[in-house]
Structure formats: C-alpha cells, structure tokens
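Researcher: Re-running this chain for the archive, since the previous output was lost when a drive failed. Same request as before.
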Amino acid sequence: MQRIQVGEATVTLVPDGTFRLDGGAMFGIVPRTVWEQRCPPDALHRIQMAFNAMLVEMGDLKILIDPGLGPRHDARFDERFAVAQPPTVLDGLRDAGVAPEQVDFVIDTHLHWDHAGANTRLDGETVVPAFPRARYVVQRRQWEDATHPHERNRASYRADDFLPVEAAGQLMRVEGDVELAPGVWVHEVGGHAAGMQLVRVESAGQTFLHLADLVPTRHHVDYPWIMGYDLYPVETLAQKKRWLPRAAEGGWTVGLVHDPQTPFGRLALRDGGGWQVTPRGE
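Model: Regenerated structure tokens:
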C-alpha cells in the first residue's frame, strides 16, 4: 500500500484497477513517434492507465478523491477499455482500515465515468451511493455539464454515477475556490471538462495537490502534452502554467490520478527544459 505523509495529513493510494485508452487521444497534438517513446501502446494503440483513488486522512476527517470506475460495467465495456479489477476502491479502503460508512467527503474532480463510477453501487436492483454518510463535492459548473450533456461529451457521463447521490441528499455543489475543512481546498480549473476541480491539502507547512485530469499522468507535465479529450485545451494550458510552477517552487507533493507507476511525486525542471515528476514513496 502506497502512503505518504503531508504534514499531519496522510494520503493513501486506493487503487480501483487499471484500464487502457487510445494513446493518440491521450496525447492530442503530440506525434506518436514522440509519445510512444515514453508510453508504449499495445496492438490496439492503447496505453496503460490506472484508476488512482486517493484517501486523505486528517485527524478524524476522511476524504476520498475520485473513487474510480467502480463495479458497474459489463464484459463488452471491459474488453473495449481492457479493464482489470480487482483491486477495487472498496478493497483498498478495507486494507487501509476504513469502511465506506466512515468517509466524510467524496470529492469528484469531475463526473466522467473513470473518476466517478465508484460513487455508487447496486443494492439489489437499485443504484445507491456507495458512501452513505459522505457529502459528494462537485463544482456547480461541472454538475450542469454532466446533467446537460451534448454530443461531444455525452459518452463521458453515466447518470447512475451521480444522480442517485443527488436523490439521496448527499450532493454538495460548490463554486470556485472553496475550503471544505481546515486546510482542504477545491479549486475550479476547467480545461478537460467544464468545472473540473483540483484538490489542495495543506498541513504543518506541507502541501499536497491532486492534479485531476489537468495532468493525468507524469507524461502530461509538459505544457503542450494535453489530451485530445480536453474540451477546452487552451484553458488546460493556462491552468498548467498557473499551477505547475507553484507546485514546483513550493516543493508540493502532487497526485496523478491515472499514472500506473507514479501516483505521487514532486515536480522538477528537466535538463533541456520542461517539467519532470520525481516519484515520492512513503
């Protein structure tokens, strides 16, 4: 189990398995001859990805960030995306000694199926929140995007991942930069999806920044390495220029939601220019 200390806060990797997505889509305008040197694809041109849910514990407070895909998918879906589970987020929480009923907040950086699918579970024939006490934190702009999809983003959202949360009275819509608890902030950045948010945790002079799909893997730290999936790529670029230098200068630990090898790291300048991620272990 990968776990890091950030001041008096503990951040634990809670894996929900792995999957694969098309490499060209993941790297946008970057030529294949360049990106495949860093991230070799399979025979179907897909690259390896992870569902890296992360548990933040500060005293008695327990916060789950981007719980992952969850269990509600079929064999056709699994084949298309090469989904491999277990482990699941519930397995990981159990290994960390945390029951679903103990989670206080679920922060959805956005509501795409690969981030928010594990928000809910099946109870018989009914889809219900998987974390019955938690408040699920979503930016208002992202909620509107997810509940009013269009042709360009419809495939990214599954209503059963989030509407049962609203029906259960557990949805917490926020706007912009909000401090949810002492030292725990969400920041709206957009870019990949309308209203996507980052999560920042500050404790005892140290900082953890969950980068969501602003920087989904360590390969995306360079400014032009922006996913073709991003609906607002110029906004992504602007937010990378805002947050990455700040994280590097502050020596912050960053969380990478889809990197199968480096979920936690620190930013440093690469020889010849650009950023690189130095892995951080326990």
